[in-house]
Amino acid sequence: MERVRGAGAVLAVLVVLGAPPAAGEELSGVFQWMGKQECHFINGTEQVRFLERHFYNREQLLHFDSDVGVYVGDTPFGEIQARDYNSHREYLKYKRGQVDTYCRYNYKLGTPFSVERRVPPSVSISLVLSSSQPGPGRLLCSGMDFYPAPVQVRWFQDGQELPEHVVATDVVPNGDWTYQVLVLLEIPPRRGVTYSCQVEHVSLEHPLSRHWEMPPDTVRSKILVGVGGFVLGLVFLALGLGFYLWEKSS
Length: 250
Ligand SMILES: *[C@@H]1O[C@H](CO)[C@@H](O)[C@H](O)[C@H]1NC(C)=O
Hints:
Elements: E1 3-7, E2 33-42, E3 47-56, E4 59-65, E5 71-73, H1 76-86, H2 89-96, H3 98-110, E6 122-128, E7 138-146, E8 152-157, E9 160-161, E10 166-168, E11 172-173, E12 179-185, E13 194-200, E14 208-213, H4 218-249
Antiparallel strand pairs: 1-2, 2-3, 3-4, 4-5, 6-7, 7-12, 8-9, 8-13, 10-12, 11-12, 13-14
Protein backbone atom coordinates (compact mmCIF):
# COMPACT_ATOMS: atom_id res chain seq x y z
CA MET A 1 0.00 0.00 0.00
CA GLU A 2 1.58 3.26 -1.03
CA ARG A 3 0.87 6.39 0.89
CA VAL A 4 1.51 9.66 -0.82
CA ARG A 5 1.22 12.85 1.05
CA GLY A 6 0.91 15.89 -1.14
CA ALA A 7 0.81 19.22 0.53
CA GLY A 8 -1.15 21.76 -1.45
CA ALA A 9 0.12 25.19 -2.23
CA VAL A 10 0.52 27.53 0.67
CA LEU A 11 -2.46 29.80 0.23
CA ALA A 12 -0.89 32.96 1.49
CA VAL A 13 1.80 34.09 3.82
CA LEU A 14 1.23 37.57 5.03
CA VAL A 15 3.97 39.37 6.86
CA VAL A 16 3.14 42.84 8.02
CA LEU A 17 6.00 45.00 9.05
CA GLY A 18 5.65 48.32 10.79
CA ALA A 19 8.18 49.91 8.49
CA PRO A 20 11.01 48.65 6.29
CA PRO A 21 13.55 47.84 9.00
CA ALA A 22 16.85 49.60 8.83
CA ALA A 23 19.99 47.72 9.79
CA GLY A 24 19.96 46.89 13.50
CA GLU A 25 16.43 48.19 13.96
CA GLU A 26 13.86 45.96 15.63
CA LEU A 27 10.75 44.83 13.77
CA SER A 28 7.63 46.38 15.21
CA GLY A 29 5.81 43.06 14.75
CA VAL A 30 5.30 40.05 12.51
CA PHE A 31 1.77 38.90 11.78
CA GLN A 32 1.56 35.72 9.77
CA TRP A 33 -1.47 33.96 8.39
CA MET A 34 -0.83 30.62 6.72
CA GLY A 35 -3.04 28.03 5.07
CA LYS A 36 -2.06 24.48 4.15
CA GLN A 37 -3.98 22.07 1.99
CA GLU A 38 -2.97 18.42 2.22
CA CYS A 39 -4.08 15.45 0.17
CA HIS A 40 -3.50 12.05 1.76
CA PHE A 41 -3.62 9.14 -0.67
CA ILE A 42 -3.97 5.61 0.61
CA ASN A 43 -3.66 2.88 -2.01
CA GLY A 44 -3.58 5.27 -4.93
CA THR A 45 -6.84 7.16 -5.15
CA GLU A 46 -8.75 4.33 -3.47
CA GLN A 47 -8.92 6.24 -0.22
CA VAL A 48 -8.31 9.99 -0.22
CA ARG A 49 -8.43 12.50 2.58
CA PHE A 50 -8.39 16.27 2.07
CA LEU A 51 -7.15 18.37 4.94
CA GLU A 52 -7.12 22.17 5.05
CA ARG A 53 -5.46 23.92 7.97
CA HIS A 54 -5.43 27.61 8.90
CA PHE A 55 -2.73 29.11 11.12
CA TYR A 56 -2.11 32.44 12.71
CA ASN A 57 1.41 33.05 14.00
CA ARG A 58 2.17 29.31 13.80
CA GLU A 59 -0.86 28.32 15.86
CA GLN A 60 -3.52 26.24 14.13
CA LEU A 61 -6.84 28.07 14.40
CA LEU A 62 -9.16 25.73 12.55
CA HIS A 63 -9.19 22.96 9.99
CA PHE A 64 -11.39 21.20 7.49
CA ASP A 65 -11.08 17.40 7.31
CA SER A 66 -12.92 15.67 4.46
CA ASP A 67 -13.46 12.68 6.77
CA VAL A 68 -15.50 15.03 9.00
CA GLY A 69 -17.04 17.26 6.35
CA VAL A 70 -17.18 20.57 8.25
CA TYR A 71 -14.72 23.12 9.60
CA VAL A 72 -13.65 22.52 13.19
CA GLY A 73 -12.13 25.19 15.42
CA ASP A 74 -8.89 24.48 17.25
CA THR A 75 -8.88 27.71 19.31
CA PRO A 76 -11.72 29.87 20.67
CA PHE A 77 -11.20 32.37 17.82
CA GLY A 78 -10.96 29.50 15.32
CA GLU A 79 -14.32 28.24 16.54
CA ILE A 80 -15.93 31.54 15.62
CA GLN A 81 -14.39 31.34 12.15
CA ALA A 82 -15.41 27.69 11.76
CA ARG A 83 -19.00 28.54 12.60
CA ASP A 84 -18.94 31.26 9.94
CA TYR A 85 -17.47 28.95 7.25
CA ASN A 86 -19.98 26.22 8.12
CA SER A 87 -22.91 28.60 7.69
CA HIS A 88 -22.18 28.84 3.95
CA ARG A 89 -23.75 25.64 2.58
CA GLU A 90 -22.51 26.12 -1.00
CA TYR A 91 -18.94 26.70 0.18
CA LEU A 92 -19.04 23.53 2.34
CA LYS A 93 -20.28 21.54 -0.65
CA TYR A 94 -17.34 22.88 -2.66
CA LYS A 95 -14.89 21.92 0.13
CA ARG A 96 -16.33 18.42 0.40
CA GLY A 97 -15.87 18.04 -3.35
CA GLN A 98 -12.16 18.87 -3.17
CA VAL A 99 -11.16 15.23 -2.54
CA ASP A 100 -12.13 14.83 -6.20
CA THR A 101 -11.69 18.24 -7.81
CA TYR A 102 -8.37 18.97 -6.12
CA CYS A 103 -6.79 15.76 -4.74
CA ARG A 104 -7.78 13.08 -7.24
CA TYR A 105 -7.42 15.57 -10.10
CA ASN A 106 -3.85 16.49 -9.11
CA TYR A 107 -2.95 12.86 -8.38
CA LYS A 108 -3.64 12.04 -12.02
CA LEU A 109 -1.55 15.00 -13.19
CA GLY A 110 1.35 14.23 -10.86
CA THR A 111 1.44 10.45 -11.15
CA PRO A 112 3.81 10.17 -14.17
CA PHE A 113 6.62 12.04 -12.42
CA SER A 114 5.95 11.08 -8.79
CA VAL A 115 4.14 7.80 -8.16
CA GLU A 116 5.60 6.23 -11.30
CA ARG A 117 9.05 7.81 -10.99
CA ARG A 118 11.75 5.13 -11.17
CA VAL A 119 15.48 5.79 -11.05
CA PRO A 120 17.78 2.75 -10.77
CA PRO A 121 20.67 2.86 -8.30
CA SER A 122 24.29 2.93 -9.37
CA VAL A 123 26.04 0.29 -7.30
CA SER A 124 29.74 0.07 -6.52
CA ILE A 125 32.03 -1.66 -4.05
CA SER A 126 34.96 0.13 -2.53
CA LEU A 127 37.64 -0.83 -0.05
CA VAL A 128 37.77 1.66 2.79
CA LEU A 129 40.99 1.87 4.76
CA SER A 130 40.90 3.01 8.33
CA SER A 131 43.54 5.42 9.50
CA SER A 132 43.07 4.40 13.14
CA GLN A 133 43.29 0.64 12.64
CA PRO A 134 45.78 -0.61 10.08
CA GLY A 135 44.90 -3.74 8.15
CA PRO A 136 43.17 -4.83 5.00
CA GLY A 137 40.27 -2.37 5.46
CA ARG A 138 36.56 -3.03 5.03
CA LEU A 139 34.27 -3.41 2.02
CA LEU A 140 31.61 -0.79 1.44
CA CYS A 141 28.73 -1.17 -0.98
CA SER A 142 27.22 2.10 -2.20
CA GLY A 143 23.80 2.37 -3.78
CA MET A 144 23.50 5.86 -5.19
CA ASP A 145 20.83 8.12 -6.66
CA PHE A 146 17.80 5.86 -6.80
CA TYR A 147 14.07 6.52 -6.49
CA PRO A 148 11.81 5.58 -4.72
CA ALA A 149 13.38 4.93 -1.31
CA PRO A 150 12.63 1.25 -0.58
CA VAL A 151 15.72 -0.82 -1.37
CA GLN A 152 17.34 -4.07 -0.29
CA VAL A 153 21.11 -4.51 -0.20
CA ARG A 154 22.75 -7.83 0.64
CA TRP A 155 26.34 -9.03 0.94
CA PHE A 156 27.49 -12.45 -0.32
CA GLN A 157 30.76 -14.32 0.21
CA ASP A 158 31.47 -16.91 -2.50
CA GLY A 159 27.74 -16.96 -3.25
CA GLN A 160 26.75 -17.46 0.40
CA GLU A 161 24.74 -14.65 1.98
CA LEU A 162 26.34 -12.87 4.92
CA PRO A 163 23.41 -11.87 7.10
CA GLU A 164 25.65 -10.86 9.98
CA HIS A 165 28.53 -8.40 10.25
CA VAL A 166 26.62 -6.08 7.91
CA VAL A 167 25.73 -2.53 8.91
CA ALA A 168 23.72 -0.16 6.77
CA THR A 169 23.01 3.53 6.95
CA ASP A 170 19.43 4.71 6.79
CA VAL A 171 18.23 5.41 3.28
CA VAL A 172 19.32 9.02 2.97
CA PRO A 173 17.41 11.54 0.86
CA ASN A 174 19.71 13.63 -1.34
CA GLY A 175 17.11 16.39 -1.52
CA ASP A 176 16.68 16.10 -5.29
CA TRP A 177 14.19 13.23 -5.41
CA THR A 178 16.91 10.62 -5.19
CA TYR A 179 18.18 8.53 -2.28
CA GLN A 180 21.37 6.77 -1.30
CA VAL A 181 22.37 3.96 1.05
CA LEU A 182 25.74 2.63 2.22
CA VAL A 183 26.18 -0.94 3.47
CA LEU A 184 29.41 -1.90 5.20
CA LEU A 185 30.78 -5.38 5.64
CA GLU A 186 32.31 -5.38 9.11
CA ILE A 187 34.69 -8.31 8.58
CA PRO A 188 38.00 -7.78 6.79
CA PRO A 189 38.07 -9.22 3.26
CA ARG A 190 40.20 -12.30 2.73
CA ARG A 191 42.36 -13.20 -0.26
CA GLY A 192 40.87 -15.73 -2.67
CA VAL A 193 37.26 -15.05 -1.65
CA THR A 194 34.76 -13.37 -3.98
CA TYR A 195 32.53 -10.80 -2.32
CA SER A 196 29.27 -9.68 -3.94
CA CYS A 197 26.87 -6.91 -3.19
CA GLN A 198 23.34 -7.46 -4.45
CA VAL A 199 20.78 -4.69 -4.75
CA GLU A 200 17.06 -5.13 -5.28
CA HIS A 201 14.96 -2.14 -6.25
CA VAL A 202 11.60 -1.58 -7.94
CA SER A 203 13.38 0.09 -10.89
CA LEU A 204 15.38 -3.08 -11.62
CA GLU A 205 13.97 -6.04 -13.51
CA HIS A 206 16.60 -8.31 -11.93
CA PRO A 207 18.71 -7.83 -8.81
CA LEU A 208 21.90 -5.93 -9.58
CA SER A 209 25.19 -7.51 -8.42
CA ARG A 210 28.72 -6.20 -8.11
CA HIS A 211 31.69 -8.44 -7.32
CA TRP A 212 34.98 -7.80 -5.58
CA GLU A 213 38.17 -9.81 -5.02
CA MET A 214 41.35 -8.87 -3.24
CA PRO A 215 43.69 -7.80 -6.06
CA PRO A 216 47.04 -9.63 -6.24
CA ASP A 217 49.55 -7.63 -4.29
CA THR A 218 51.91 -7.16 -7.25
CA VAL A 219 54.62 -4.95 -5.78
CA ARG A 220 55.00 -6.94 -2.60
CA SER A 221 54.92 -10.31 -4.35
CA LYS A 222 57.57 -9.15 -6.84
CA ILE A 223 59.83 -8.00 -4.00
CA LEU A 224 59.27 -11.32 -2.22
CA VAL A 225 60.15 -13.32 -5.36
CA GLY A 226 63.24 -11.15 -5.91
CA VAL A 227 64.48 -11.43 -2.35
CA GLY A 228 63.69 -15.17 -2.29
CA GLY A 229 65.64 -15.73 -5.51
CA PHE A 230 68.58 -13.73 -4.23
CA VAL A 231 68.73 -15.70 -0.97
CA LEU A 232 68.42 -19.01 -2.86
CA GLY A 233 71.22 -17.87 -5.18
CA LEU A 234 73.41 -17.05 -2.19
CA VAL A 235 72.75 -20.49 -0.67
CA PHE A 236 73.74 -22.26 -3.89
CA LEU A 237 76.77 -20.05 -4.27
CA ALA A 238 77.88 -20.86 -0.74
CA LEU A 239 77.25 -24.58 -1.28
CA GLY A 240 79.13 -24.58 -4.58
CA LEU A 241 82.02 -22.66 -3.10
CA GLY A 242 82.07 -25.00 -0.12
CA PHE A 243 82.18 -28.07 -2.32
CA TYR A 244 84.87 -26.53 -4.51
CA LEU A 245 87.09 -25.69 -1.56
CA TRP A 246 86.44 -29.03 0.08
CA GLU A 247 87.31 -30.92 -3.13
CA LYS A 248 90.43 -28.83 -3.60
CA SER A 249 91.72 -29.39 -0.08
CA SER A 250 91.10 -33.12 0.03
C1 LIG B 1 -6.06 -1.17 -3.48
O1 LIG B 1 -6.97 -0.78 -4.46
C2 LIG B 1 -7.29 -1.76 -5.41
C3 LIG B 1 -8.24 -1.15 -6.40
O2 LIG B 1 -7.73 0.04 -6.89
C4 LIG B 1 -7.91 -2.97 -4.70
O3 LIG B 1 -8.19 -3.98 -5.65
C5 LIG B 1 -6.95 -3.49 -3.64
O4 LIG B 1 -7.56 -4.52 -2.92
C6 LIG B 1 -6.56 -2.36 -2.70
N1 LIG B 1 -5.52 -2.85 -1.79
C7 LIG B 1 -5.55 -2.66 -0.48
C8 LIG B 1 -4.41 -3.19 0.29
O5 LIG B 1 -6.47 -2.09 0.07
